[in-house]
Design brief:
By secondary structure, this protein is of the alpha/beta class. It is built from nine helices and twelve strands. The protein has helices at 41-54, 69-72, 75-81, 91-109, 117-121, 192-201, 219-241, 246-252, 263-272, and strands spanning 5-8, 11-16, 21-28, 31-35, 59-63, 87-90, 130-132, 135-139, 144-148, 160-163, 168-176, 208-213. The radius of gyration is 19 Å and the shape is globular. Zinc ion binds next to loops.
């Protein structure tokens, strides 16, 4: 039973073993903002119990850092527990959850041996109802919380949450601590490093950065990960530029992460480099 731990002033993080995912609370005079809601209705009921046990107030708003189910499928449970509070997300994240959420549910339905199959299958997908395109400020009374869209990366709709008075930043899955960054078939590997440059611009050397998965980190950690993600992008660009076919690219590259985790990164990168398949003739 994970506990919420205060990592910066009135910012609490609980780290759940299933997917090693973080749920974060930001406290203000008006109440709590919950950032990400875990991966099923049942999983979120545990989170709601933990929020109540912390005793820091009532949830007045929900933020989804991106559409992936381990961050959004608890939305309905929080809505039921806290009276239809608003759910904030980037506009692309809402579109992606609407388009692909059901596919995730089906994947669990098709895998009855997964211990979470029943929970996820029984979960109602609840879409965020408050969207924005570049930035939005949420007023918690004595505290302003900024939602910022730094550009595409882990998905097309990842936001970061900045709490300026606490010098804290919740990075969602644009940053991961307990595993390499997760490239799936909805990722934007060529844009990701540039989006992280914007995220870095929102931090100071003293910032506390909460990743989507794993322990809180500092700016230096994010700089190192930005460089590794940059190497992935540059390697894809180099391989494509030299005309290495997609099927050979994974073996031909030297990667900062295990290559078996980068199949989707390379495939998506090749797709996103418009001229990579047809090389221009050399003059
Ligand atoms: Zn994710």
């Amino acid at each position: 039973m994970p506990d919420f731990t205060e990592v910066a002033e009135r910012i609490w993080v609980a780290r759940y073993p299933w997917f090693d995912v973080n749920v974060t609370l930001v406290g203000g005079e008006r109440g709590l903002l919950v950032v990400d809601t875990h991966g099923s209705a049942a999983a979120a009921r545990e989170v709601v119990d933990d929020v109540r046990r912390l005793g820091a107030g009532e949830v007045v708003g929900i933020v989804n850092t991106h559409w992936h189910f381990d961050h959004t499928f608890g939305n309905g449970t929080f809505r039921a527990a806290y009276d239809e509070v608003p759910i904030h997300a980037h506009e692309n994240a809402v579109a992606e959850l609407a388009r692909w959420g059901e596919r995730t549910r089906q994947r669990f339905a098709d895998d009855p041996d997964d211990p979470h199959s029943e929970d996820v299958t029984a979960t109602e997908i609840v879409l965020p109802d408050q969207t924005f395109s570049s930035a939005r400020v949420l007023d918690l009374g004595d505290r302003a919380v900024e939602l910022v869209y730094p550009g595409r990366g882990h998905t097309s709709g990842d936001l970061v949450v900045r709490v300026p008075d606490a010098d804290a930043l919740l990075a969602g899955d644009l940053v991961e601590e307990s595993a390499p960054p997760y490239y799936n078939d909805d990722c934007w590997p060529m844009d990701w490093p540039l989006s992280l440059d914007i995220v870095l611009g929102l931090t100071t050397p003293a910032s506390v950065v909460v990743p989507g998965h794993g322990a809180p980190v500092d700016r230096e950690f994010v700089e190192v990960q930005r460089n590794e993600i940059g190497i992935v992008a540059e390697t894809i660009r180099d391989l494509a530029g030299r005309g290495v076919p997609l099927e050979k690219a994974l073996d031909a590259g030297e990667w900062p992460y295990p290559s078996e985790r980068l199949g989707a990164a390379v495939a998506r990168g090749y797709e996103q480099l418009p001229r990579s398949q047809k090389r221009l003739p050399l003059l």
